[in-house]
Design a protein that fits this description.
Distance between the termini: 35 Å
Number of strands: 6
Low-confidence stretches: none
Oligomer: single chain
Strand order of the largest sheet: 2-1-6
Radius of gyration: 17 Å
CATH class of one domain: Alpha Beta
Strand content: 25-35%
CATH topology of one domain: hypothetical protein PF0899 fold
Helix content: 25-40%
Shape: elongated
């Protein structure tokens, strides 16, 4: 279950950042999670809850924003959400996607702090 190691890394990073900012009290960690990140949201949230249980970080919530897959279509010359998996095709014209623009994210975007 690689979600547990990810959850531990999230907590470690957030704790280091809170300390760097003078020991601020963290209420929540905000995370962007793309559909193609290879991480199951439910498993990550469960692993996060397990990792913080019984620690000084027990009150830190995890807020996950799910990011859909968005591709750039060279035929349409624009970005579109993908509706077909595993083929990454443009939802407007059906052409193969030229580039994945969004959907691979796995990043901490904010710490919600008291104060």
């Amino acid at each position: 279950m690689h979600e547990l190691s990810i959850a531990l890394n999230i907590l470690d990073f957030a704790a280091q950042e809170a300390e760097r900012r003078g020991g601020v009290a963290v209420r929540a960690v905000h995370l962007k999670l793309g559909s193609l990140a290879g991480v199951a949201k439910e498993s990550l949230v469960s692993a996060y809850d397990l990792a913080r249980e019984g620690s000084s970080l027990a009150d830190w919530r995890l807020v996950v924003e799910e990011i859909p897959v968005v591709v750039y279509c060279p035929a349409c010359r624009s970005e579109h959400r993908v509706t077909s998996f595993p083929e990454l095709c443009c939802s407007c014209c059906g052409a193969p996607a030229g580039e994945v623009v969004h959907g691979r994210e796995l990043e901490i975007v904010a710490l919600e702090i008291e104060g």
